[in-house]
Structure formats: C-alpha cells, structure tokens
Give the backbone structure.
Amino acid sequence: MLLEGKTAIITGAGSGIGRASALRYAAEGAAVVAADVREAKVEEVAAEIRDAGGRAIACGADVRLAADNERMVDAAVSAFGGLHAFFANAGTIRPGTAVDLPEADWDLVMAVNVKAVFLGAKYAMPVMADGGGGAFVATASVSGLAGDPASIVYSASKAAVINLTRALAVDHARDGVRVNCICPGAIDTPPVGRMLAAEGARERAGAHHLLGRIGQPGEIAAAAVWLSSDQASFVTGQALVVDGGLTAKSRLSGMGDPRPERLRAG
Ligand SMILES: NC(=O)c1ccc[n+]([C@@H]2O[C@H](COP(=O)([O-])OP(=O)(O)OC[C@H]3O[C@@H](n4cnc5c(N)ncnc54)[C@H](O)[C@@H]3O)[C@@H](O)[C@H]2O)c1
C-alpha cells in the first residue's frame, strides 16, 4: 500500500490513463478525487472504487478553468481533510501542420494540456505545502521530446509540460512538494484504439517499441503511483519516459547490423 493515508486528485480520470490511475491510487490506499469534464464517467469510476472498499468522490471539472481547479482542491480538503498528490493527466490532441491547424485548435490544446497544469499547481501547491508537502505529477509525452508529423500543437504542448515540470520543481521544493512528469509512448487508451483501428495498425505501432507492443494504461498508472509515493522521495524535476523503449532506438538502427558479415552469421 504505497499511498496509505494520502489523498490524491487525478484529472482526466474518466478514461484511459486517468481512469486506470484512479483505480490504482485507490488500490494503493489513497483517497481519490476523480476529476473529468465528463462527470458521468468519473461518477462510475468513483463508484467502482467505493464498491471495491476504497474511498473516492467524483468531481465534474473542466481543467481549463481556474474556478474548477479550485473546486477540485476544495473537494479533496472537505471530503478527505487534505491533499498529498495531484496527477495533472487530462489531455487532448488535435492534428495539423502550421498551415492547416485551425487557430482555435491551437488554443484548445494549449489550454487543456499546458494551462491546466499551471492552474492545478496554482491551487494544489499551497494546500500540499500547508500539509507538510506532497507530489505533483503531470502527463507529458514522448511527443514532447521530438517532433511528430502533423502534430505541432500536441508536440509543443507536451514539450511545455516537461519544462513546466522542472520550473515547478524549482519553485516548490522548499515547500516539500516534488514535481515530476511522465512521458508515455503509445498507450492502449480509447483515442489510440481509434487511431489503430485499421487492420495491422496496432501490430505496426507495437513494432516501433523495443518491447514489441504498445503499453497499457496500468503501466503509466504504476509510474504515477510510484512518483506520488514516498518511494520516490529523492526524485523531483524529472521527465520519466515510460515507452517500452520507443525512444531508446536511434533511427540509424534501421540501417541494420554494422558487424562484418562473418560475425553476423555467428
Ligand atoms: N494514450 C497515449 O498513447 C498517450 C501517450 C502519451 C501521452 N498521453 C497523454 O495521457 C493523458 C491521458 O490520455 P489518454 O490516452 O488516457 O486519453 P483519454 O481520452 O482516454 O482520457 C483523457 C481524459 O481527459 C478528459 N479531458 C479532456 N479534456 C478535459 C478538460 N478540459 N477538463 C477535464 N477533463 C478533460 C477526457 O474527458 C478524458 O476522459 C493525456 O494527457 C495524453 O496527452 C497519452
């Protein structure tokens, strides 16, 4: 029970990585505020946690709004008496190059993926500091480490999350709050499932990862739990890549085995 006695807010908890994380944080002993703009989804998640004997409430919230972030934090304090972990995980994606991405899509993705992390920190940090410290975790992406085709705003937003993580870590270390982010590779969540619906697409995507498959939401949830727990007590300001080896392999690997023929045969 890595999170016994702690209270955690998880955003984007209605689906995918956030849903798996809400269930995992609760299984590790945390009281959970499951937040999502799709309120009915988090009502289901909170009920599932309570049915399994855990503690959880749902909070319908749009992470782009300051007032909703404040309300999430207030809900954690009034329901469970404090806040020890905040997982800023809600995110969205819109495809496009600089030429064809609508300006409104730029604003939407930057608001959900970046501004929301700032707003979550704005309200969570003082409460975690008052309680003696805590852990703030954000979901970035391997798309924040390098460019992807026709994904300018998603790539820019996730790169921003990585450096926002470092800047928050610098500011809040003195309050006892550690700040880290996770860079997932391709994870089998509903939006990715839709992208990989075509025949053979899932296998092709998996083949880019050294481990030969795309990841499962629980594999990101496990990293978030660890970063939120006292097991990670000396870890702050880091971008933890959890990608099955997707980014470990250089493009030059495609050029094949560089050993002379006689060694390759052996
Ligand atoms: N799935 C992947 O392969 C992958 C890879 C790298 C990073 N990520 C990141 O992981 C996070 C979770 O993505 P997922 O794949 O689980 O997607 P998902 O669509 O399954 O879940 C995202 C959740 O965020 C919620 N959300 C969206 N906008 C919101 C808003 N304004 N306010 C509150 N909630 C909002 C959605 O309702 C949804 O329930 C995102 O930040 C995403 O960018 C995902």
User: Anything to note?
Assistant: The chain has a mean pLDDT of 97. The pocket of nicotinamide-adenine-dinucleotide is lined by residues 11-12, 14-18, 36-38, 41, 61-64, 89-92, 112, 139, 141, 184, 186-187, 189-192 (CB under 6 Å). The chain has one domain: 7-244.
